[in-house]
Amino acid sequence: MSFYVTTPIYYVNAAPHLGHAYSTIGADILARHQRQRGEDVFFLTGTDEHGEPVALAAEREGVSPQELADRNAAHFRDLMPAIDATNDFFIRTSDAQHGAVVQEVLQRIYDNGYVYKGHYEGWYCPRCADFKSEAEIEDGNRCPIHHIELTREQEENWFFKLSAFQERLEQLYVDRPDFVLPAHRFNEASSFISGGLQDVSLSRAKFTWGVPVPWDPDHVFYVWFDALLNYYSGLTYGRDGEDLRDRFWPPAFHIIGKDILKFHCVFWPALLMAAGLELPRHIFVHGYLLMDGEKMSKSLGNVLDPIAVIDSFGSDALRFYCFRDVSFGQDGSVSTTQFEQRYESELANELGNLASRTTNMLVRYRDGAVPDVTLDATLVEAFDGLSDEVAELLSRAELTRALDAIWQRVRRLNGYVTETEPWQLAKDPARAGELDRALASLAEGLRVLAILLHPYVPKAVAKLQDALGDDELSFAAAGYGDRRLRAVNAIEPLFPRHTTT
Ligand code: MSP
């Protein structure tokens, strides 16, 4: 089956921060997992370059919007290998090919009768590039996200008949209870719809940094419609000389943050219906990473620099921490202190030590040869059903719960080392059989953990597999006792102890 997964495309009016890395790593974990299951995967990320926020930022810096976009898109592009994201393409909405598809699809929606010219007046946030309803506005006419004062704006422009999709959207949410995940976000989207839909502005005439409206070139498309269509346009030119739409449309998962729920869970399906295109299978809405109780964002100045974290601790540590400390789907606080604690106690002590102890003991007591003996029944039982459970959780993008299930087995293996005390067994030749069984059972546990942990900590898993003398990553081989390791080598510490300077 095909598995097409996307991230939001990021605004180029600011530099990448941990929030952007978070969504991207989340999508990457799903992409890697599905590849392990033998699925045909396409993973798209990129940058959202048009619209007023970018035009305003460029003006402030005294450069053209394209120059600003080129400079900042490069930072986002560079973020991808730094966080080990395996995206198949990096889309930029200033790409000419993207613009052409936006025009083609929106022209179709116009031809289908879902667009009209109208007048709009409301409270507008230039940072969100969005009008706010009276219910959303904070005291003092402020944006609930950016806390800046909203401006009263009037517009004569083109409108998309969102209201015409009221019933079809309601029906969608009845028919497909897993369209939006997790459930509390489904409920949020669904009650937004049942609250009654108003038509939305489709174009702006105030500025020119955008995709021109083909039937009225004095207007450019409202940035959100331009941006949403990246998910579709990306398949038309994301791989040289190929049109991937037949193979990958519709998307399996859009991964997004809760700030853009309305656009993805309400506008986007309506837009696709208006264009006669199939809807995505799932939209997973994650929460905010918070520092000091506020959403991390460049404009609030409270960012944790992912590159600085990676420079000191490596990309695996960041990938692990993001999904371990904060449950994917919920909001949660992050901090450097918690990060360092998790690194030491879980990555270095629990996983790192387990790998070192197991391989070292095999080298010391058995010259690295993994004994070919029956595995310990208690561990067989502890791992029973694990890979199915992980696959099931990841098919709903439950990244934290899946990692939790895996980590319980990391702890179980450490507990097993403590219980069996292989170093005591090694002192008594009469207990050689018990030692064989303990060592082989631990090695097999590590082999399975390597496969399951690959999407989360791919660099560490590559090192671990190297020491285990096995490079099988296929999910089908993740059953405990499915394969047999032959010879292992001692391993360098997977997560070196860290002294902060
Ligand atoms: N350009 C739009 C998205 C268009 S998608 C068709 C946009 N860009 S953004 O640069 O503001 O990125 C927003 C996304 O970044 C959020 O939806 C979320 O996925 C991620 N995050 C940004 N800050 C975040 C946190 N503090 N915490 C978690 N994720 C955050 O909106």
Describe this structure in words.
The chain contains 19 helices and 16 strands. It folds into two domains: 2-313, HUPs (Rossmann fold); 335-477, Isoleucyl-tRNA Synthetase, Domain 1. The strands form four sheets. Strands 3-2-1-12-13-7 form a six-stranded parallel beta sheet, with helices on both faces. Strands 5-4-6-8 form a four-stranded antiparallel beta sheet. The chain has a three-stranded antiparallel beta sheet with strand order 9-11-10. Helix content is 49%, strand content 16%. It is elongated. The mean pLDDT is 94. The protein has 501 residues and is of the alpha/beta class. Bound molecules: 5'-O-[(L-methionyl)-sulphamoyl]adenosine. 5'-O-[(L-methionyl)-sulphamoyl]adenosine binds at residues 8-11, 19-20, 22-23, 48, 227-228, 230, 256-257, 259-260, 288-289, 295-297.
